[in-house]
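Supplementary Methods, section 5.1.

A reviewer requested that the exact input to the structure prediction be made available. We therefore reproduce it here, unchanged from the version used in the analyses.
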Amino acid sequence: MFKRLFRKKSVDQIIYDSQHGEGSGLAKVLGVRDLVSLGIAAIVGAGIFSTIGLASYEGGPAVSLLFIFTAFACVFTALSYAQFASTVPVSGSAYTYAYVAFGELFAWIIGWALVLEYAVSNTVIAISWSQYFASMLEGFGIHIPAWLSMAPGYALDASQKLAEHGANALTAADKHGLEAYLSAPRIGGVPIIFDLPAGIITVLVTALVYIGIKESQRASAIMVMIKVGIILAVIFGGIFYVKPENWTPFAPNGMHGVMGSVAAVFFAFIGFDSISTTAEECKNPQRDLPKAMIWCLVICTVLYVAITLVLTGMVNYTELNVKDPLAFVFKYVGFDYMAGVISVTSVIAITSALLVYQLAQPRIWMTMSRDGLMSKRFARIHPKYRTPSYATIVTGIVVGVPSLFFKMDFFVDLTSVGTFFAFIMVCAGVLYMDYSGLSEKSKFRVPYVNGKYLVGLGLLGAIVLMWIYGQAILLEWKNLTFMEIIEHKVLIIIFWLTWLGLSIYSFKMNFSLLPVTGILINLYLMTELGASNWIIFIIWLIGGLVIYFLYGYKHSKLNKESIS
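The structure derived from this sequence is encoded token-by-token as follows.
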């Protein structure tokens, strides 16, 4: 049984199944420009128009450095993705890559984690879209009833806050929530409150994705041109309102404040993963996917760093804890016309991000179904539109229903857990490819830098720096009990042990430095996420393993082939 759990698919077998098996027949219409456009649509979306405000509020102007650091982490991951994409040019993203490198069980775990990543990310985007849409309509004098434009949790929280602390304690957001609670129709005394715009946009985008990849790409390209144009206008227009004194202090809450925004910042960069899910719809995936991934990362990093510096220069970071930071800063400096334009553009920008994520999720399910790990219906291709029809509809339901009823802050941090996990597996997969000789089939390879001594020297250097500059951290550890260390620091321990293990194996096996660096940076960023996110993620994985052993293990194509 152990061998069956880790059985692997060959590259030739995966490519054959994608061309001749169930779920084949997708339209090959995408080139480099199309892929870059889709990547920018995904990366420059809800992050730059909403969560960047919260990140700046928590970390100050220094969050611009966090974008650079996060992009630095993504470079190594993007190179690893690019190598896999040039070797295994099929849909499925990290799921497919894990099937080749680590076997079926790991592939299922990654695929199940990606389901969480895309579903949660899309839910966040849909809720964010609703907030901007309601704000835009207000600018035109159209008011959506509060009980039709928010999750019930916000209204219930506002009602409870009023009862406990009085009206003086209510913020503007609380008052809006209270309005929803008081004005909502009731059934049996229970207020009926839900986020209707979030549900509607999910249905509309799902319908577009269902109709076809080319139609989706054209719509995305138009929206990308509009939003990149407005972002450049914000950067070059906002420069004239920048006050350098707003950049002081640069890191008001220290590294803790900056790193505390990792989830909100990293959420923006998972878009290049979605590009790899369209591999079977590329004209030349082995050439075009690597180029598109690198171009997306470079362009989007420059935009994010520039916009963060402009925002924190125009307005003091303490003012940026708002849902629409780009529009807010121009209202703050009295440029209301620009704020109105940004509100309209934000709706378009966030729609394009939702579109790309809705494209990606069904294609992962389709690939898992093709391998027998999920129902055959998920691999069903529409005869006219040539899209994974059933998987697309299910994706719409999985995203649409939670977006109607759940609060955004429940999802934001959770978006990054599955992403980090998948990124680490992809980087580790490149090490396996080098070891097994699979890299010889790659038309693009991660540049090789021998890490035989460098990984271990890096570990020694980090220990020395910690001893010199990290005495406060070491003192904190000394004051913790054994149980407190297990409860709060276990991920840090895993990080250092992993670095030690990679140092040993790099010395023995001459591991390439760049994938190792990708593993370590992603793992370190994982340690900055909250414990609650990990608990939910572990519960999600346990549920996924139950499904795998009840259905996937038995119906796996590799399992049937081994029996026959």
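DSSP finds 27 helices and two strands in the chain. These observations are discussed further in the main text.
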